[in-house]
Design goal:
It is a single chain. The chain has 380 residues and is α+β, with helices and mostly antiparallel strands. The chain has three domains: 167 residues, no CATH class; 71 residues; 120 residues, CBS-domain, CATH 3.10.580.10. It is 54% helix and 17% strand. The strands form three sheets. Strands 10-9-8-7-13-12-11 form a seven-stranded mixed beta sheet. A four-stranded mixed beta sheet has the order 1-2-3-4. Strands 5-6 form a two-stranded antiparallel sheet. Strand 3 and strand 4 form a beta hairpin. The radius of gyration is 31 Å and the shape is elongated. The relative contact order is 0.07.
Length: 380
């Protein structure tokens, strides 16, 4: 559940909570595959009737996944977040929403909404199953060899499984995002939370393989090809997702630790009317590498490296104005010395190509300059 950079390709079925409902073409393939699996489970012969039952079960499964994603969208909208898309994919679905200035509460509640929705659906499906007066009707309605009672029962169990699986506390499951938000809230560091959830995701990926292969052994038989394929398939989805999240957390955590102060080059400020010699002397006295030239109103209007004054003949420095060495600085090209991480990225996006430096400001005072090239290198 992240901010979507571009529209997802697929069939657009409408909108809900302002979000496009998109079904990727691969989802249709998965529907057919699931229909075949459900139709032939237990060694049942594949016929038009059994395939129809299998297709109904597959569609109901994807409806449950869709409602799971709608719950994510509803939770995001409750926090006044724009929801971009709800996408049904080959392996399930995802919801993209505006994740700027995210907080642990927004992330945790939005993530938890999906599994909670499946728990609610499972509960609703169990109501007619537990209602004795309805049971005869449910058992009398027959499609092929399957009663409506069994279909409703399957919906209840399917949603319970979806809820439990998605609640597992590791990335990429929703429970992983809940764990991330909890650790984030406790430590104050989102990337610590992301690392914890990513490692938990790796543990769960290994655990799925152990369980998938262990259950047959505990049942007194050797794991067959289906057990092995199922375990490897789930592992192939979970492990790379968790590992990628871990890499992102490590990279972004490093980025978050960088501040403008770390990149600041010492500078001295001088009024625009002084000479090169005076500016040079001020820089030497302050031990500054850069000189920031102030306009009449005291705002930074230009800058130059102190070493650039070497290009002016020594005999001429006392009479040469700063216009001969000053590079213009756009009004507003400044950054707070404590700014870091996302603030630096946003500033780079705003100022890249418009200036080569910012003036670094601390409590309203210019304390140096930050070269945009240095900031770009530090954030890569």
């Amino acid at each position: 559940m992240t901010q979507s950079p571009r529209p997802t390709r697929g069939l657009t079925l409408g909108r809900i909570f302002g979000a496009r409902i998109v079904v990727q073409y691969s989802t249709l393939l998965m529907l057919v595959i699931l229909a075949l699996l459900f139709a032939t489970s237990g060694g049942v012969e594949l016929t038009r009737r059994t395939f129809t039952v299998g297709l109904i079960l597959a569609v109901l499964l994807f409806v449950s996944v869709f409602l799971h994603e709608v719950a994510h969208a509803a939770a995001a909208r409750s926090f006044k977040r724009d929801v971009n898309e709800i996408v049904l994919t080959l392996w399930g679905g995802h919801t993209s929403y505006d994740a700027r200035a995210l907080t642990p509460t927004v992330m945790g509640v939005t993530a938890a909404a999906g599994p909670v929705a499946n728990l609610v659906l499972a509960g609703l499906a169990w109501i007619p199953l537990a209602w004795g007066a309805l049971e005869p009707t449910l058992r009398d309605w027959v499609l092929g060899d399957v009663t409506l009672y069994l279909i409703v029962q399957w919906v209840a169990w399917a949603n319970l499984v979806l809820a439990i699986f998605n609640a597992l506390p590791g990335i990429p499951m929703d429970g992983g995002r809940v764990l991330e938000s909890i650790v984030w809230a406790v430590t104050g560091n989102r990337y610590t939370g992301m690392k914890a959830a990513a490692w938990a995701g790796r543990v769960i990926a290994v655990g799925v393989v152990v369980v998938a292969l262990g259950i047959p052994v505990l049942g007194g038989r050797s794991p067959d090809l289906f057990d092995l394929l199922w375990a490897m398939l789930v592992f192939a989805i979970l492990w790379p997702a968790a590992s990628n999240a871990l890499k992102v957390a490590q990279a972004l955590g490093k980025r978050a630790s960088v501040t403008a102060r770390d990149l600041t080059v010492a500078a001295v400020t001088v009024p625009h009317h002084v000479t090169v010699d005076q500016a040079r002397s001020a820089a030497e006295a302050a031990g500054a590498v850069e000189v920031v030239v102030l306009a009449v109103d005291g705002a930074a209007a230009g800058h130059f490296p102190a070493a650039l004054t070497d290009a002016v003949e020594e005999a001429d420095r006392a009479t040469t104005g700063l216009q001969s060495v000053t590079m213009p600085l756009p009004r507003g090209a400044a950054i707070d010395a404590g700014a870091g991480g996302d603030a630096l990225v946003d500033a780079l996006q705003q100022w890249w190509g418009r200036t080569d430096v910012w003036v670094a400001v601390d409590r309203g005072e210019i304390v140096g300059v930050v070269r945009l090239a240095d900031a770009m290198k530090a954030l890569q």
